[in-house]
Protein: Protein-S-isoprenylcysteine O-methyltransferase
Amino acid sequence: MSSSPSSSTFRRVAARPSPPGHEYRPHQPKSLSGIALRAFLLGATHLNSLLLTLTILTATSSPYWRLPFFLASLSLFHFLEFWTTAAFNTPHATVHAFLLTANWPAYAIAHLTAFTECLLANFFFPASSSFWVPSYLRPLLVLAGLLLVVTGQSVRSLAMVTAGESFNHTIQHYKAESHVLVTTGIYAWLRHPSYFGFFWWAIGTQLVMGNLVSLAAYVGVLWYFFSKRIRHEEELLIRFFGEDYVNYRKRVGALIPFCA
Structure:
């Protein structure tokens, strides 16, 4: 009689399939409770910050309206990141699509630094916010910042809408079947409209806030980040689409300074 153990001894237990709707449960990538909570908090932050901004502007002469304005801009940006993904790129509508923890913690530190700089500058120089700019140019500085914020946000959201399922928040190293080279709409005018949008949106927020140090830091860090990202991404796009992308790159610019 053979002394080898029976086959039943090593019988593998089949992995249990995930129950229907598992990915929508708490702590999962598409957690409905997580999405609802984030959307609620962002919406509440945006509404209250916007109301506070308008109240300070209309009822006082305080420059502190810039702080809730920054929070209103940030909360709207992150909400729209998810909403446009959910509406036009539904398979990728996860809790991460809000981008709240993207490039953590550097991203959070940058915004906290900007908020703190504005707070301290207006505390120590309450009568002359944006003290590094001549007084007659300060209204123009704020106006330019507002235009950049609105334009940047609009262009980025439009880019995500236009690209649809070809858009992704992370660089794709393999071409999916759904990926197509989008050259119409906003992409006919800008080669990387989502990057263009965020770059100028971020700079606009710092102009509105009157920040000098954060403005310089945002310009330097974002330029470095996007120049590297665009270079790497375009190597992959040439691999995916060949001459079609090479020709597209030749005729359409990125409109981010010194980013080819």
About this structure: The domain at 27-251 is CATH 1.20.120 (Four Helix Bundle (Hemerythrin (Met), subunit A)).
